[in-house]
Every structure is written in structure tokens, then in C-alpha cells.
Amino acid sequence: MTDAPRRTALDATHRALGATMTDFAGWDMPLRYGSERDEHVAVRTRAGLFDLSHMGEITVTGAQAADLLDHALVGNIGGVKTGRARYTMICDAEGGILDDLIVYRLADQEYMVVANASNAQVVLDALTERAAGFDAAVRDDRDAYALLAVQGPESPGILKRLTDADLDGLKYYAGLPGTVAGVDALIARTGYTGEDGFELFVRPEHAVTLWEALTEAGKDAGLVPCGLSCRDTLRLEAGMPLYGHELTRATTPFDAGLGRVVKFEKTTNDGDFVGRTALEAAAARAETAPPRKLVGLIAQGRRIPRAGYPVVAADGTVIGEVTSGAPSPTLGKPIAIAYVDAAYATPGTEGVAVDIRGTHEPYEVVALPFYKRQK
Q: Comparing C-alpha atoms, which of 255, 262, 260, 257 is closest to residue 291?
């Protein structure tokens, strides 16, 4: 017997809006409310409202909280200023990625680690285990927060109607405590869509109030509720990796072209952190003879590639594998992210195709991302 999926504080709201629900990492989540293409376009041109309450929040506090996180994660977390956030990863001793994370420094001795829903327990267990010997406490705060996101070019204007927080002064990857629609919130300028936007961490009992206030404030700006389906195509166009697809325990940050998040030069803990030796070897490998590289692929036809489909050369030799694929509403063509042999990873390389159920469909190799917003 399987456990029933968990429901967010906004579950009844989604159902009242006619959302198509789906099981995602043990949560019942809205996949779409109507047309996923319309939801995608709304975020690119106006604004979209998301329920992301399935994400996993873990609080780390104490005199050695920074030291613990520098030991447990690959980034330089001690160097993050209060009120700022950092994208980072947690790896195992062999350098394999356990999850990619955002870490917010809420106070001098307080951090919030936000993990993917599917990995939240793994991250919690790893941080708890790695905390041994540090004057720091790791707390599971997954039930303490609901998370709403408003994303898209109209999102700053919409949020300004509901808060007197200094949104203009809030930089990308920064967060500040404030009040939104009378509700206490951590207001973070972060997102997973490639657009400007905000993620709002609130107590679960305030989620419905906030959702309704944002919906009302965004009515004239074209705000629409958005599900996980368009969140996936938005992040795909923006070249953002998804755990279980581009990132797995079998890949290192260097394999994924994200070696920049690994900070060998951190000074705390004498620069030592879990996975360091293996990651140094992975960095050297990536420099001299990378086995495969992550690239973008744009279809010349109409057939849609899916994760796991082989990428082939002109002679039919398998040279890689698709990790994510979908129709791109912005480009008007199917797109994919794939790992391909380094010899085929240069943008413009010819003769590359995706094997879609036995037919070799031609694809153009491009650099990621497919889409970058005008700032």
C-alpha cells in the first residue's frame, strides 16, 4: 500500500480553479489549470502565480552554522552576507550530486536551505549527519512554510501593490523579511523561470490569504495561476537543470557544466568539504578530457524529444542522451537539453539527430540557455 500524496495548504484553492492535479515527489500538485502554453506565455509576457509549497525548507542555526554548511555543501556559504542567497549543491563523498539547493542567510547565525521536494529527506539526513562535531543545529522546517511564487515582467508591479518592502532595492538572489497583504513573509528575488520574480515564504495558514490577494492585485496585469507543466518548459528554455534529469547522483557539478558552484578556495574548515577530493579529480577531467557535455538541441522538425532518447551522429552512432525535452512556446519548436560526446558539443555542429522511436530527427546543437530575458 502506498502512502497518500501530501497536500499543500492551497489544495482546495487549486481544485476550485479546476486544476489538473498530479503526484509529484509524494505531493498532490497542480499540473495545469487550463492551457499550459497559455500559462507559459503569461509568465514570459505578464505574470504567473505558482504554489511551490512542496519544496523542502531546512533551518541551520548556531555559532558554527556557517562552518557546518561550508563543510557539508560545495559552495562558500560563510561568504554569503545576511539577506542574500546562493545557489549551491550538496554532493556525496564520490562527488555525485545529492541535490541542488538555494541557501538563504537569514541572520548572522541562521540559514535556510531550500531543497527539491524529491530530495528533501536525503538533504535533511545528510546535513544532520554532517553536523556531528559542529556547534550547530539542523531543523526540519518543511511543515513550517508554504511557498508562493509570482514570476514574470509584471511581478514587481503586482507585489508593490501589497507590500511597502523595498522591492527596487532587493537584488536578484536576495531575501528580506516583510509584510505582503498583511502577512509576514520572507520575500526572495529568486525563481526558476528565467524571468524576474519573487518567492514568498509564509506560514501555511496564511497561504490562501496571500494567494487571493496576489490574484486580485494581478488581475489587471494579466496574472494567471500556473502549474508544474509550464514551470518545466520555462526552466527548460532558461537552461536551468532539473534534479533527476540533468543532475543525478551519477553526475558531478563539473559533468553538468556547473563547476563554478564548487568553491575549492573556501577558507573555513581549511577548505575541506564533503566530496572535495573526488571533485578535484572531476574538475581536472572536465578540463582535459570531458566525457560528455551538456548542450541545447533545437529541432528542425516537429517531433518532440523526451528524456532518455538517444542522440546520434550522422552514421547512427549513439553520441549522447536527452535529459529533458519539450515543445518551446517561445521558440515555436521542440527543444531539448542533452549530454553529448565532447566532439559534438560545439554549437553549430552538423549531423546531430535524436532517435525518436526509430526515426533520426535532425537537431541543431546550440549553447544554453535557449532563452535569456532582456534586462
A: 255
Kindly give the confidence (pLDDT) of every residue in the chain, 375 residues in length, as a single tens digit, with 9 standing for 90 and above.
567 899 999 999 999 999 999 999 999 999 999 999 999 999 999 999 999 999 999 999 999 999 999 999 999 999 999 999 999 999 999 999 999 999 999 999 999 999 999 999 999 999 999 999 999 999 999 999 999 999 999 999 999 999 999 999 999 999 999 999 999 999 999 999 999 999 999 999 999 999 999 999 999 999 999 999 999 999 999 999 999 999 999 999 999 999 999 999 997 766 799 999 999 999 999 988 888 999 999 999 999 999 999 999 999 999 999 999 999 999 999 999 999 999 999 999 999 999 999 999 999 999 999 999 987
**Per-residue b/e over 162-174, b at no fewer than 16 CB within 10 Å?**
bbebebeebeeeb
The b/e string for 299-310 (b: 16+ C-beta within 10 A; e otherwise) is beeeebbebebb
Domains present along the chain, CATH in parentheses: 6-52+145-237 (3.30.1360.120), 54-140+252-290 (3.30.70.1400), 291-375 (2.40.30.110)
Phi, psi of 183 (to 5 degrees): -110, 135
Q: Which residue has the cell 526509430?
A: 358
Which residues participate in the annotated binding site for substrate? 199
Distance CA 65, CA 78 (A): 9
| Contact residues for 131 (Cβ-Cβ < 8 A; gap 6+) | 60, 68, 72, 137, 138
Residues in the chain: 375
Short-list 263, 255, 318, CA closest to 285? 255
CA distance 209 to 206: 5
C-alpha to C-alpha distance for 56 and 147, rounded to whole angstroms: 10
Cell of 291: 566525457
Binding-site entries: 199
